[in-house]
Amino acid sequence: MHRYDPAEHSYKDIYRLMIGAVVPRPIAFVSSEDKHGVRNLAPFSYFTACSTNPPVVCFCVAVRAGETPHKDTLRNIRETGEFVVNIVTEEIVMPMNATSAEVGPEVDEFVLAGLTPVASELIRPARVAESPFQMECRLRQVVEVSPLPGGGNLVLGEVVLFHIREDLLEDGKIDPDKLRAVGRMGGPTYVRTRDRFDLARPK
């Protein structure tokens, strides 16, 4: 086994290592608004569910080098306490990728990506109409893991309302063949979720 001491490498080297090994990663397509109502839409692949009672999801906003270390998403959520997590599917992977471009905070990424904003019911930020599974969230906590470049802020949001396209549900479960979710690998590589196998848990 190769020994790899993070103290001996740059954070960029560690980033490449981690995103190549911690795979596949689901994508949180997060819609938010600033305090003036300007919409924002951005993807995050450090994302998972972390509680079901209450339902809580979390994603990490990386700290960038330069004059603007934090993305608009983090600022918006801190200002308003609300956001939507939209699940990324094969149908919207290209528009999702378009929103990862570095643009100013005044740019509405819904317009940039050609996606349709639809009003949420319990919070202000809009949902992505083209996503078949959307979660309206209220902020529970932001955990600053590290303020250094390459560090992160873990955002935990309680899901106050789910929106699920009707054909996805089968006996209360999501049909993965109809969801057609995608995930991130390392670099520019994505993965489909079609190749699956079952394992029964030992009794």
List its traits.
203 residues, alpha+beta, Pnp Oxidase, Chain A, 7-stranded antiparallel beta sheet, 3-stranded antiparallel beta sheet, 5 helices, 14 strands, globular
Would you mind describing this structure in some detail?
The strands form 4 sheets. Strands 3-2-6-9-10-5-4 form a 7-stranded antiparallel beta sheet, with helices on one face. A 3-stranded antiparallel beta sheet has the order 1-13-14, with no helix packed on it. It has one domain: Electron Transport, Fmn-binding Protein, Chain A (Pnp Oxidase, Chain A, Roll), CATH 2.30.110. By secondary structure, the protein is α+β, with helices and mostly antiparallel strands. It starts with 10 loop residues before the first helix and ends in an 11-residue tail after the last strand. The protein is 17% helix and 36% strand. It has 5 helices and 14 strands.
Total strands = 14
CATH fold naming: Pnp Oxidase, Chain A
Strand content: 35-45%
Large-scale geometry:
globular
CATH architecture call: Roll
Task: Please outline what is shown here.
The protein contains five helices and 14 strands. It has helices at about 10-20, 70-80, 95-100, 110-115, 175-180; strands spanning about 25, 30-35, 40-45, 45-50, 55-60, 80-85, 115-120, 125-130, 135-145, 150-165, 170, 175, 180-185, 190.
